[in-house]
Amino acid sequence: MANDRIILGIDPGTNIMGFGLIAEKGKKIELIALDVIKLDHLDSQPLKLRSIFVKVLALIDNYHPDEVALEAPFFGKNVQSMLKLGRAQGVAMAAALYRDIPIFEYSPRKVKQSITGHGNASKEQVSAMINRLVNIEEQPKYFDATDAVAVACCHYFQRTVEGAGKSYTGWGSFISNNPDRIK
Fold first, then answer.
1. 59: which residues sit within 8 A by CB, 6+ positions away?
2. Which of the residues 24, 67, 71, 147 is marked catalytic?
3. How many other C-beta atoms can be found within 10 angstroms of the C-beta atom of residue 169?
4. E strands along 14-84, which residues?
């Protein structure tokens, strides 16, 4: 089908980076793979970033995704953590761009909202919903893997809504886009 595509979802991290691949087949999604890339054995930040670049390139070369969706770093209490996450995300983005793959970014809140209907959902809730969506046969050891699949699914849902036609933010939006339907 013309709308079949593969989406690589990435949950960036400098110790553990989650990845998940889904295939869109018509109006259904299927899980291709999910796992984590462990980086905590590497001593320096530059070595971790190099490894992220190399591993993301390998994922791209192996699975040939059409699009890459990444979770955006969020500002917590530790600025250094956010900086490290931003670097990890940037290197993953660079790998996708190096292979001319379009990239999309979603906030953690947007991903949770898209998957569970609640922007403050726990990792356990996200994982449980992902299991229902794509039927994970063996539960991964780390939530980073299911978080990455959640990012890919979020992107699928966002593109499906956008591609299905018009979307509206409320009655005012509907009325302004459909004046002929109001009598």
1. 8, 19, 21, 65
2. 71
3. 7
4. 16-25, 28-38, 67-71
Give the dihedral of Cα atoms 173, 174, 176, 181; nearest 10 deg.
Answer: -170
- Does residue 180 carry a catalytic annotation? no
11 is catalytic: yes
Query: Whose structure tokens read 């994970």?
Result: 136
For strand 28-38 and strand 16-25, is the pairing parallel, antiparallel, or unpaired? antiparallel
61 is catalytic: no
CATH numeric code, 5-181: 3.30.420.10
* Separation of alpha carbons 140 and 57, rounded Å: 22
3-state secondary structure of 73: coil
**What residue ranges do the domains of the chain occupy?**
5-181
Q: Going residue by residue through the chain, which has 183 residues, state the pLDDT in tens, using 9 for 90 and above.
A: 446 899 999 999 999 999 999 999 888 999 999 999 999 999 999 999 999 999 999 999 999 999 999 998 776 677 888 888 889 999 999 999 999 999 999 999 999 999 998 889 989 999 999 999 998 888 889 999 999 999 999 999 987 665 443 344 455 555 566 565 554
